[in-house]
Predict the 3D structure of the following.
Amino acid sequence: VHELDVEWSWRERLRIGRFPDADDLDPKAYPDLDALVDHWRRDEDEMRAWLDGLTDEQLSAPSPSERRSLPLWYFVMHLVTHGIQQLSEAAVQLTHDGQSPGEIGFLEFVEDRVRSGAEG
């Protein structure tokens, strides 16, 4: 839920120029894994639509929501690397608890998607 909240709120901040008015996402709003997965899928569609709509010029320009004069793509990269950090920390904790997630590398992810027909 934390990572979903981070991606959603940062995307909105970068898109509309400020953090959204809504509070942080509440883990209690997701009574089971299916509820969380459903929200993730909707959020992924929104993220992809936003990213697809960005031009090279927008990505190279300073973010309209940040006082720092860094290009927008730096903040997009921050979203990616934050997700990787969270995934890594969860994997370490799961492994410590005897529940290793197994191979979680990018190539394994892509190969699984190709095998399942999700990527062509």
